[in-house]
Design brief:
two-stranded antiparallel sheet, two-stranded antiparallel ribbon, 4 strands, elongated, mainly alpha, 2 domains
């Protein structure tokens, strides 16, 4: 079987050889694109190593790490607010209730620790305010 291409006759094998070369070029191009995407993903997830931490305690040097650190900070702030609400509920039933530790507040055992550093929240002896002792969480 012969084909006429640009004024000459070619065998079917020559035409088939060209298409397999094109397929090979497409495969190589696809592999290069996949390799570039993988490299960009690694840089995005792990960073280049030269970034400064987003948080005072050294967490969040990459974009994903900063997002995780922010989520953990929000969880800590939510836990502190829940402990404060539990303390207010306990004080409404007993005005003389003054716990020395967060563990003495009824129902606070599941939210009594910072999700980042696992430190137990502290109660100020004079003010009775509940705070997180973790670095960077002083404002909570």
């Amino acid at each position: 079987m012969s084909f006429r291409m640009s004024g000459e006759f070619c065998s079917g094998e020559a035409v088939r050889g060209r298409s397999s070369r094109r397929r090979g070029q497409t495969l190589v191009a696809s592999l290069i694109v996949i390799a570039i995407i993988m490299i960009l993903t690694v840089v995005y997830m792990r960073g280049t190593g030269g970034g400064k931490p987003a948080k005072p305690d050294g967490r969040g040097t990459t974009t994903m790490g900063a997002a995780k650190a922010s989520a953990e900070d929000i969880a800590c702030q939510s836990n502190v607010n829940q402990v404060r609400q539990l303390l207010m509920v306990a004080k409404t039933s007993d005005d003389s209730f003054k716990p020395a530790t967060v563990d003495e507040i009824p129902g606070a055992t599941s939210v009594s620790k910072c999700p980042v550093g696992k430190e137990t929240y502290t109660i100020g002896p004079e003010s009775g305010e509940i705070h997180c002792p973790h670095l960077g969480h002083e404002k909570f």
